[in-house]
Amino acid sequence: MAKIVVDVMLKPEILDPQGNAVASALPRLGFTFAQSVRQGKRFEIEIAGEPTATQLAEVEKAAEVLLSNPVIENFVVRVEK
Amino acid sequence: MRVGVITFPGTLDDRDAARAVVAGGAEAVSLWHADADLKNVDAVILPGGFSYGDYLRCGAISRFAPVMNLVIEAAGKGMPVLGICNGFQVLCESHLLPGALTRNSDLHFLCKDQEIEIVNNTTAWTSSYKSGEKIVIPLKNGEGSFQCDDETLAKLEDQGRVIARYVGQNPNGSRNLIAGITNERGNVVGLMPHPEHAIDELTGPTAQGLGFFTSILNAMVK
Q1: Is the dihedral of CA A7, A13, B48, B3 positive or negative?
Q2: For a designed S-S bond to B172, which of A62, B43, B144, B209 qualifies (C-beta 3.0 to 4.6 A apart)?
């Protein structure tokens, strides 16, 4: 069994109010390290056996069509060892 | 004249939209998300709510409902389509309209009476209004901030495809105060505030939302 991970993030130019809210909450708790925070989504997809090139291409397609909205989001597909 | 109102699981405003259609002088036809049939309607409304629980992204799952394939095809042939609130989100996810609706800039769910200005009265859904007319209708959403890239924004502005703007303070962070837009042809309109909740003064803040539902009759008579 292998796990394919799709990370979806808002494009850098898109306002991220949730990330901003997290960024402003951190210093209130004494965490002063953050210059900025962006919040995204992570999908974990399990498949039987090692992924083939065809399967990875299908996951890329699914990420483009359903898992992300290309108008406002970027995504990265990777296989987790 | 038959106007279809689609109900997805989680749609809230289908009854009010149907009532507004009737008040506007047309026949309201209920359409179900799983139907592969538009029941010979002349126009379609995608009402507000939380279709499919807003899972994944608002409108993202609805966009693949069986009835939406027919709506996308009909819209391409010129059928008038109005998406209100969640319906606007579905139209953006369907790529019938450009851009996307994201979380309100202050993160709060809004529910208020909002003044908007009708800035394009040449669409199938806005012809009953005067250009520049200001109306007050309810605005209620959590993800109503209209976002798109600079190129798309310039195109929308240059082509006069912004149909309504918020008046006064920006309620949700939408670019250029955009409350509603249309496609190039002017038959597909997406609007974040709710005209169907303002069709008479007994149940709404005003009756000024009715114009969207009488406009569609004008569009058909032409």
Answers
A1: negative
A2: B144
Partner-chain residue, chosen from B60, B104, B173, that has the shortest CB–CB distance to A69:
B60
Other CB atoms within a 10 A radius of the CB of residue A6 amount to 19
User: Going from the N-terminus, what domains does chain B have, and what CATH number goes with each?
Assistant: 2-221 (3.40.50.880)
Q: Please tell me if residue B108 touches chain A, with a CB cutoff of 8 Å.
A: no
CATH number, position A10: 3.30.1280.10
| Residue B99 token pair | 């851009």
Find the closest chain A residue to B60 by CA distance. A66
pLDDT digits (tens, 9 = 90+) for A10-53: 999 888 999 999 999 999 999 999 999 999 999 999 999 999 99
DSSP result, B38-66: -TT-SEEEE--B-GGGG-SSTTTTGGGSH
Inter-chain touch A72–B102, beta carbons under 8 Å: yes
- Of the partner residues A18, A67, A72, the one whose CB lies closest to the CB of residue B147: A72
Determine, for residues A72 and B107 on separate chains, whether the beta-carbon distance falls below 8 Å. no
ipTM of the complex: 0.82
**Residue B136's pLDDT band (cuts 50, 70, 90):** very high
Q: Hunting for tokens 């998300």 — which residue is that?
A: B33
Residue B27: alpha-carbon gap to chain centroid: 19
Closest-CA residue of B relative to A63 is B56
pTM: 0.93
Q: At a CB cut-off of 8 Å and minimum separation 6, what does B90 contact?
A: B8, B46, B51, B59, B62, B63, B68, B83
User: How many folded domains does chain A comprise?
Assistant: 1
